[in-house]
Write a structure and sequence with these properties.
The structure is a homodimer.
Chain A lengths: L8 H8 L3 H8 L7 H13 L6 H8 L4 E6 L5 H16 L3 E6 L4 H10 L7 E4 L9 H8 L4 E4 L9 E5 L1 H14 L5 E5 L5 H16 L9 E3 L4 H13 L6 E4 L2 H13 L9 E3 L5 H5 L6 E3 L2 H17 L7 E4 L2 E3 L7
Parallel strand pairs in A: 1-2, 1-3, 3-4, 4-5, 5-11, 6-7, 6-8, 8-9
Antiparallel strand pairs in A: 10-12
Chain B binds a DNA duplex through α2 and α4.
DNA sequence: AAAAAAGCCGATAACGTTCTCGATAACTTG
DNA sequence: CAAGTTATCGAGAACGTTATCGGCTTTTTT
């Protein structure tokens, strides 16, 4: 099957016996074209089923209508929902999103950023994998004047617009809820050192303890990976100590699920013996038994807002960077009921 | 921040005092250029950090290096994993993927297909939402010579390459496993009429019953949506009958989860009283208690293979359509143990 | 040693669109 | 009615790259 030659504005011009310049103006609803010819052009372009060639428009306008999205992975509930949010806004504005997955590898992130063909991209959305201190690969891109917006895993060292959920408050609210539910010795199993979301959630955890005059036990703050297996192993470490906590706040629901599974294997009765709280509101948290108390992250809104912000940066180069923090909400479930 | 003018082959040519034609040939490692000048060009292009302008190359080559992916949604485990597979192959070959989500709406699918700017797309990957009998919107696209590959939810009426998991065998194996585990009255809660995966899985279910001389009860085959809520409601319907089944095979794990939750509310002991089997191996199936026996769909491979097939169609227009069926595997869990 | 071939390179057109500028005709203005 | 405005349009360049073709050297062939 030979691919048909697409119709161009030249075809329309020839058909109507006018110049391509006039056709171009008519289609873009631009100046200097009479009502009558505009209508004739639009009708003809509909008849011929004309579609603009984005390579051509992009070449002259120096745009691509492409947005690069760089993130750790896509198969988690949180990130796939964020992408759905990004996609809805991008699509509405005629932009395509181009996915780049770092697979939680800082090296891959650098390679991806370095190999980006900036001339084919109007802007970039990033959720960091790499340590946020050394984001030279992103700073280089920004120095070239390419608009960039960070979401979720952001870096303080980068001066750019940022969109995130209320990590500090979410952590605070969950831990406070655990305390009010009667738990006094609350451990925190969290993510790798570096990302600002970790700092914020740890701070929320610490401040909640402080507010209720509970002492902080450094042994009970464990940094490891974001996944379910790490949740299991963190619990093993905690249970190797002489002092065991009576509640666990996990940095996300995947780790909380891992913790619950491990505790169940240890015949610990969740709720009665040990309370558990998570973060995100992954469907897993609602399905597992017992269901897990969590703070719902507004993933869809994070996606929508970071895309809208990026579009503003793209459309006006002097749009000033701003930080958007979106509230979530506490969802109480069985895992925090004594 | 003004966007910097990107370096072009003109810059390289001027710097080296040669023509742009030579630079172009050198970079593409093409004919008619000496070893020495090629090296000088490559070195200079690295020094200046040159990146090709895809709008320009696309304009002259009539390519975009873009692949459109049209699918029902992205937030499910299956589809997000398929996308990860597609993305890995596309990225490796220098292609971008452009997501289009139909949100399970046939109307949206038609609109998306109709509005696709075909001149900006080299090929299309589709998993259907619409009824597969009336796929005129896709046939029109194919008539224009645009390569198209279907995956998962395919349509028999379309003559194109197709990639899917072994739906028939998967259903057969799960139902056979239920039978061998001692269940005799097996219901099937499945998806909407139309998609071929539904037919295949229903046939697998029916043939397994037939093989073991179990009678088919039409009341026990319920068509509804793909989601968890439908799973719950299907069970309600089943339990409204005088004859209740002693096992349920669900078209996917989300419905199986819904069924399990509903059965638990009805105080039915899953496994002992009623066996449950699903399809996909969604993480939910492993986490829920009791965990659900299922057939693991090779989502990543489906994504990889359909993308590879599409690339072959793109590269040679006389590549003949083929159908690829990828095997999964039975995963036995608690929900099918008496 | 002449003829043919091969190697290497540059000039130019082309891809489809937009933008700048100038041209023409119609319309105002005083 | 002359001069200036306004409305409408077309010609041509430009965007960055590749493809075609022709020209000049150098090498190979006979």
């Amino acid at each position: 099957m030979k691919r048909a030659r697409p119709v161009t504005i030249k075809d329309i011009a020839r058909e109507l016996n006018i110049s391509v310049a006039t056709v171009s103006r008519a289609i873009r609803n631009s100046y200097d074209v009479s009502e009558e010819t505009r209508n004739r052009v639009l009708e003809m372009s509909k008849d011929l089923n004309y579609r603009p060639n984005f390579n051509a428009t992009g070449l002259v306008n120096h745009t691509s209508h492409n947005i690069a999205v760089i993130l750790p992975h896509i198969t988690s509930y949180y990130f796939s929902t964020v992408i759905a949010g990004i996609q809805s806004i991008a699509y509405k504005n005629g932009y395509n999103i181009i996915l780049h997955l770092t697979d939680e590898s800082a090296e891959r992130e650098v390679i991806i950023a370095r190999d980006l063909s900036l001339s084919s991209i109007d802007g970039i959305l990033v959720s960091l994998t790499s340590k946020p201190e050394k984001c030279d690969h992103l700073k280089e891109i920004m120095n070239q004047g390419v608009p960039l917006v960070l979401f979720d895993r952001v870096a303080e060292s980068i001066h750019a617009s940022k969109v995130m959920q209320n990590d500090y408050e979410g952590a605070f609210v969950v831990v406070e809820h655990l305390i009010k539910s009667g738990y006094k010795n609350i451990a925190h199993i969290t993510g790798p050192h570096g990302p600002s979301i970790i700092k914020h959630r740890v701070n929320g955890y610490l401040d909640a303890l402080k507010k209720y005059n509970l002492t902080v036990n450094e042994e009970w703050i464990i940094h490891s990976e974001f996944n379910m297996l790490s949740g299991r192993e963190d619990v093993k470490k905690l249970w190797n100590n002489k002092n065991k906590p009576d509640a666990i706040f996990a940095v996300n629901d995947k780790k909380a699920v891992g913790a619950v599974l491990e505790l169940k294997e240890k015949k610990v009765v969740i709720g009665k013996d040990v309370g558990v709280g998570g973060f995100t509101n992954d469907p897993l948290a609602a399905i597992i038994s017992p269901s897990i108390t969590t703070y719902e992250a507004p993933a869809l809104e994070v996606g929508q807002q970071c895309c809208e912000l990026l579009l503003k940066h793209i459309k006006s180069s002097n749009f000033q960077p701003r930080e958007v923090v979106i509230k979530g909400r506490l969802i109480v479930r069985e895992s925090s009921k004594k």
